[in-house]
């Protein structure tokens, strides 16, 4: 079986993406996570560029990594410096990593217009830098920047640049599509041609400006590349880098190429979401392989086919990468969607066609009013139980009132008063909050926690409001989506009304009812 080495550059190239930021502590946490799934090389950053990377390289030496080797990243020496006086090379060596990745110029345009040296001097810069780092006992990965554009412009000179690195003692030659504008057929042809002229193992580093980063990486592997560089979730400058969350399953499960173990492959979704959480980037539901929607089925005929044979509408088994099949229920749903979803929740609707029809009809009715159950599984589960007649109400609302007051110190405070009946007892409580929903939540908890103390471990983590018909102005319906979690789970509920307080209350009540229902099981 062919083997490919994985090189992650999330901590350096990935954080150059717009809106992506990681602290040194975040970078250390991600390093541990990448090591867990068997990434071979982790590029930590440029130790000469900022204090954060200096702190990272100082701290990462204390980590006990089992699989990964950390690399420092930087440039070849400056044109007016020797290898011993160049500050960038000094910074690279100060990181004390066994592996150093350097990049150099492959494209005549960059040599003349950016670096502004002669073609011969550029070759000397590459060779002297690699030679010096090898003299310092480092494993050297040479990234040939803009290689494919340089090769198209002048293949002879582009090849001379990587030959200079090879002859100076580099351990790897990595061909870079830095502008992200090349296509798979050309990438493969070039990799094959370089492989005929260079004896070192080749790698590939691609950007996604043409939407081809993953395809180009795979094409390079098919052409002989043995190392793939990329980032988790494809984070990176401009349109991003090659997404390892796509490349890994393609290599492993589509091409039968050894890159990580079966067991570690099942952690891919976990790693994707872990990195997005630390980077404070909302995960893309439609992201291939690891996105929430990657194995989600909504159309009735699709769901029916998947129930009979998952291969009918799934290109692979989602569990292999830690994802899961999701059956969506909406106004487009047929009876098959409902039966599958009910079975997922532990209800048997297959043997009761009338009940399944009632659920479908109720879902369509509510979605016509503005509800949206695809993103609110907890509300959908409660709806099904109500229609099936197996729902147990944990409390009964008898009324509530919300007021907003601006006080003498200019603080705006909301107060909610609520009356509910719980286990035959009427509770009349009040609470203040930063806003009306916060106040309602406080008053409801105050009324219920004496009877249901497990509510103390539940908290609201997100609150979204969407206006459904903007043309109606202030009389428009709004949809409120509430996300909640406790020590073990998270869930989402939905409410709709022309009154934002009522919509919020409905979503809030569903959230509390779901928590009590799941804890009772």
The helix count comes to 18
Question: Quick one: CATH superfamily of the largest domain?
Answer: Aldolase class I
Count of discrete structural domains: 4
Strand content: 15-25%
Q: Any idea what the shape is?
A: elongated
Brief summary of the model shown:
Helix content is 40%, strand content 20%. It has 521 residues and is α/β, with parallel strands linked by helices.
Give the tags.
single chain; Double Stranded RNA Binding Domain; 521 residues; 18 helices; TIM Barrel
Question: Please, could you describe this protein's structure?
Answer:
This protein has 521 residues and is of the alpha/beta class. It has 4 domains: 5-279, TIM Barrel, CATH 3.20.20.70; 296-388, no CATH class; 395-451, Double Stranded RNA Binding Domain; 458-521, Double Stranded RNA Binding Domain (2-Layer Sandwich), CATH 3.30.160. Helices cover 40% and strands 20% of the residues. It has 18 helices and 16 strands. The chain has helices spanning 24-36, 51-60, 87-94, 108-115, 119-135, 147-153, 155-167, 184-197, 213-222, 244-254, 262-265, 268-279, 300-308, 335-344, 353-369, 377-388, 436-448, 500-520; strands at residues 5-8, 41-45, 69-75, 99-105, 139-145, 172-177, 202-206, 227-230, 296-297, 326-327, 396-406, 412-422, 425-433, 459-467, 478-485, 490-497. The protein has an 8-stranded parallel β-barrel with strand order 1-2-3-4-5-6-7-8, surrounded by 9 helices. Strands 11-12-13 form a 3-stranded antiparallel beta sheet, with helices on one face. The chain has a 3-stranded antiparallel beta sheet with strand order 14-15-16. α3 links the parallel β3 and β4 (99-105).
